[in-house]
Write a structure and sequence with these properties.
Elements: H1 3-25, E1 28-29, E2 36-37, H2 40-51, H3 55-70, H4 77-100, H5 105-131, H6 142-164, H7 167-176
Antiparallel strand pairs: 1-2
Length: 177
């Protein structure tokens, strides 16, 4: 195994752990479903934009799924793992695509975040309505998920821009890639 692959995996594991912690720190139960609002998507987006695919997406999916498992939301683990993986994957793809056409970085972050959070809102609605059997009652969580998405988008953009200004962080990223 190459040294930079090992460093990348360590960084991804740290982001998975941070995603889990951020998801579990603040949990506000949602109305109509057994879900909850949290700030974990902040780190989901951060992982996507700093580590890229596939490692950022893996960190997001594993960390988020682990948070649901540890918090006793076992029925959400499969859905959360897939939804958060896809969120991070999409956030990275949109960011990189806009970066290639020289969009300002904040615009690329916001567009990637909006696409990712849309995946989250739609993903949980479909998962709850179909696989968890809530039917149209799953629509009750749409507003809560949108609030979580907007909040975490703002936090994620601010965190990413701030941390990327740190020379030590950028040096670590170069080693990880």
């Amino acid at each position: 195994m190459k040294k930079n692959n090992f460093i990348t995996m360590i960084y991804a594991a740290m982001l998975a752990a941070l995603t889990c912690i951020a998801t579990m720190v603040i949990k506000v139960p949602t109305l109509g479903t057994n879900g909850y609002v949290n700030i974990g998507d902040t780190i989901v987006l951060f992982a996507a934009w700093t580590l890229g695919n596939p490692y950022g997406a893996l960190a997001a999916g594993i960390g988020s799924g682990l948070a649901d498992l540890l918090a006793g939301y076992g029925s959400y683990v499969p859905g959360t793992t897939v939804i958060k993986f896809v969120m991070a994957f999409v956030a990275c793809i949109v960011f990189k695509g806009l970066n290639k056409v020289n969009s300002p970085k904040p615009v690329a972050y916001i567009a990637g975040g909006v696409a990712a959070e849309t995946v989250m809102v739609v993903g949980y609605f479909v998962y709850e309505a179909t696989l968890l059997g809530y039917g149209m009652a799953a629509a009750a969580s749409i507003i809560s998920n949108m609030i979580q998405g907007i909040t975490c988008l703002v936090f994620g953009v601010v965190l990413t821009i701030a941390v990327k200004k740190l020379p030590a962080f950028n040096a670590m990223l170069v080693k990880a890639r």
